[in-house]
Amino acid sequence: MQTLFRNALAGPDVLGLSAGASLLVSLTILSGNAIVLSNGPWAISIAASIGSGAVFLLIISIANRLRDNMSLLIIGLMIAAVTQSFVSVLQFVSKAEDLQAFMIWTLGSVGGTNGQEIEVMMVIFCIGGLISYSSIKSLNALLLGNNYAQSVGINLKRSRFLIVLATSLMTGVVTAFCGPIAFVGLAVPHMVRLMIRTSNHKILIPAVMIGGAILLLGCDILAQLPGSTQILPLNAVTSIIGAPVVIWMILKNKKTSV
Amino acid sequence: MQNLDLGYLDGKNNNLLFENLNLDLLAGELVCFMGPNGIGKSTLLRTLAGLQKPLSGTVVRKKKISVVLTDRVHAYNMTVQDLVTFGRYPYLNWDITLQEEDHSIIDRSIAQVHLENLADKNIEELSDGQLQMTMIARALAQETEILLLDEPTAHLDLNNRVEIMNLLRHLARTANKAILVATHELDLALQTADKIWLATANKKILTGLPEDLVLDGSFDDVFQLKGFDLKTGKISHEAHRKISVQLIGEGHEYLWTKNALERSGYKIRSDSDIVVTVNKEGEKTIWKLSFFELKKTCDTLIQLLSVLENQIKQQ
Lengths: 258, 315
Known about the structure:
Chain A is mainly α.
């Protein structure tokens, strides 16, 4: 996403993709059994993917009119705020037990997934990962901007569609089962780029995937509070680590290049 | 390129920039595409490169084209070599594996712009001129017959501008490429271009040798020059002092002395009583001023000018 938007501060949570996914997930969770398909893991993850995909397309159409990195961020916040308010309305009219399930879900957890959900996740991640990895050439070319990418024979529409598809699928499925986990998607690419001095997505994509897994598991270990029986919400831990990264990025680099 | 109507859509308005263009680019030639800002040079270039659709008509692209645009490139952890590698992308598979041949083309392209020493340097650490050279190397690595450049010398100092234009002319000759450079820098274009495309206000493009277009006044019409005398290639000075000076001398020293005097408002005439003689004594240049009875020798031009000024006030 950071490459596609040429914006170092882009990430699924910052730009509202997770929020879009949340909205559709909350629709399915909070509507309880009103919708027939609602409780299967496939249904939830597809709903979430559609939610994040819709927000992604909205953001892309807005991003084309913006030249400023920071304004894109504000737009993302606004979209998140709008979806959040929809979610609030849903919460207000929903039943108490649905509400509690939803509240726990928003705090984020990797522990609550069952075997069937992990199966769904595996399948979708394989698809998403393959699509991303097959886009390394266009992603690299996009580093130079749309015009240059086109001039070296990249089909912009097609590669954009593939990137949106892969991102939405993966954001959707993670959000569906683990809740809207903040900052990992934003912080990990920067951490990886600090460690591996390359701009080549052929190396970056696998590295970021591994790095993301490591960071999230690390955060989860912290969240379990070793030596105590208390469990912190995962989202709290990732935010504590991720938010300073964002502030550091803004301070360090006014140009915010990718 | 045939019968091309060109422009862009702005809301519902059809902003036609050029109509009915028929132009050729020949191999081995450096063509400068000139016109005032905002007349549509970039639009034409982007249309030629296929990055934008013409309003009507077709661009016949029998040859491959590479471009150097005004888009600024920012990227972390990208070296000069990485950037030049992008030139090979049209020839690579999805998994971007470079062959032996690709490596040698990349190295050769970097060598052509004389950046061998900087090949492993991060592009964020390059000067503007070096970055522009890298972008040219990237276009060279694409191995196309045609090279389009949009304002390649913008934001560069004179030295870098001259270097880039010389390099482009050299490439046109030695690599037999057709090179089209959009620029609004008159002085540079006139001295380096083999041909000029001149965008005019009535949506046409005039083509010709730079000298022909200067002499027939086309440039004056298009640019509406203010104080730059194209035919002498100099900025024209008003002789506001109404005082003329006779100048004797030769070579560069003569020309620069003339420049200084004219800028200060003196007129150079051969029948004046004020005579400045430029002499060289070894490495040093001295100026001898004869102002009616006064005779004075000066070591610098600034001294000469101040002596002149004082004498005029006293008269």
